[in-house]
Amino acid sequence: MQRISNRVQALASSQTLAMSQKSAELRAQGVDVINLSVGEPDFNTPDHIKAAAEKAIEDNFSFYTPVPGYMSLRKAICEKLSRENGVSFAPEQIVVGNGAKHALCNVILATVNPGDEVIIPVPAWVSYTEMVKLAEGQPVFIPTDIEHNFKITAPQLEAAINERTRAIILCSPSNPTGSVYSRDELAALADVLAGHPDVLIIADEIYEHILYTGGEFVSMGSFPLIADRTVIINGVSKAYAMTGWRIGYCAAPVEIAKAVTKLQGQFTSGASSIAQKAAEAAYTGSQECVEEMRKAFERRRDLVVRLAREIPGLKVNEPQGAFYLFPEVTAYYGKSAHGHTINDSGELAMYLLQVAHVATVDGGAFCTPGYIRLSYATSDENIVEAMTRIKAALADLK
Ligand code: PMP
Ligand code: GLU
Predict the structure, then answer these.
(1) Are 131 and 162 in contact (CB under 8 A)?
(2) How far apart are CA 178 and CA 68, in angstroms?
(3) CA distance 67 to 171
């Protein structure tokens, strides 16, 4: 038998990716599954970005890249951060990696020591906890719920910080809830953090552009009192429909950027040359494609919220960003149908997969059982069909 390290044995598998895999397997067996599990835009990468990648191949961008990324891309990222977010970074503060996931993991490995506490408001994206565990840090959860729009408050944050706190990971717009912190709410959190100068703020801003009418995106890097210890994580996956290209970055204090570069230099080297040239085109080219996709997501948000609210047992809030709905499902606990009894949200997600043939993700994957996550980054027809099937399957539960 092969021996697997304790470090990897202790890791949970990514349930978002696992559920997506399960639905692909069922589909391969001929089952007509609608996949609302994985969160990725269903649009093709815009043509001008693809053309830049083709040109990069033609122009022989085929050699190892600088470990932190091409200077031209890092400059384009600094310009984007200044233009769109009003935050000032120099190219030596940017490290481009293989997706925001990689950039985030780099930052955690470069800053968290064994035993350090990292605060994670939950529900939280599946990978935060596991990355902290990989660094042998201690995740500290601040629970939220649908009644509070899944947002933490300044007093909750203050109460969670102690002398062992190394960092906090914030995500707005949020995966999995779609909640967006307002400027005032973030300012209140920044005020608390200003009183704790040893705490690093890691702001995952990957969904910044998937933001609905009435919302305002405010970068955590824009609060002067904490700007010098805020790390921004972002990338091209969501805004430009480029999940498979694998380009993300951290914008960090210089020492952290240097540490991340050292780590990356031993681990993965610089990110793909072709994908970096494509990402550069994304940041420097027309931004119309971003707005077009945003509008489509907003229309789908309205559709999925309307349909979900027609299902009596679901408690549904209206997401302000990202492309996820996170309804509470506890009304179905203790009920049975089709040979299934629902005792928790994991069983409900499995019931929906097997009976309704709709793949969702258990809220437990986001450290918040009692809910399920639906990704509505899919066509209107798929959304209507999926919600019709879910409604029927849930109505059977008695
Ligand atoms: N952060 C959040 C909150 C996400 O949902 C994702 C999507 N998987 C990522 C980071 C990572 O994105 P990527 O690695 O594709 O850039
Ligand atoms: N962010 C997406 C999700 O949450 C992609 C899958 C992943 O990387 O976890 O579904």
Answers:
(1) no
(2) 31
(3) 26
Find tokens 């210089």 and name the residue: 254
- Tell me whether residue 75 is exposed, middle or buried, using C-beta atoms within 10 angstroms of its C-beta: 0 to 12, 13 to 18, 19 or more: middle
User: How far apart (Å, rounded) are the C-alpha atoms in residues 332 and 326?
Assistant: 15
**Is residue 39 in contact with ligand 2, taking CB distance under 6 Å?**
yes
How far apart are the C-alpha atoms of 84 and 78, rounded to whole Å? Answer: 10
Report the distance separating Cα 346 and Cα 348, nearest Å.
Answer: 5
pLDDT at 38: 87
- Residue 341, both tokens: 């009894």
Sign, CA torsion 174/86/103/275: positive
CA distances from 346 to 17, 32, 281, 319, 332 (A): 15, 21, 41, 22, 12
Q: Which atom of ligand 1 is nearest to the CA of 125?
A: 3
Residue 167 bridge partners (DSSP): 118, 200
* For the CA of 206, the nearest atom of ligand 2: 1
For 358, the token pair is 């709709």
Confidence check: pLDDT of 20 > 90: no
Any idea which ligand is nearest the CA of 18? Answer: 2
Residue nearest to atom 3 of ligand 2 (CA): 39
Distance 314 CA to ligand 2 centre (A): 23
Is 105's C-beta closer than 6 angstroms to any atom of ligand 2?
no
253 within 8 A of 231, measured Cβ to Cβ: yes
**Position 271, amino acid:** A
Between the CA atoms of 225, 259, 162 and 157, what dihedral angle is there, to the nearest 10 degrees?
A: 50
Contact 134, 104 (CB under 8 A): no
pTM passes above 0.85: yes
Q: What is the DSSP letter of 245?
A: G
For residues 367, 380, 291, 49, the Cα torsion angle rounded to the nearest 10 degrees is 90
Q: pLDDT tens, 256-289? A: 999 999 999 999 999 999 999 999 999 999 999 9
Residues in the chain: 398
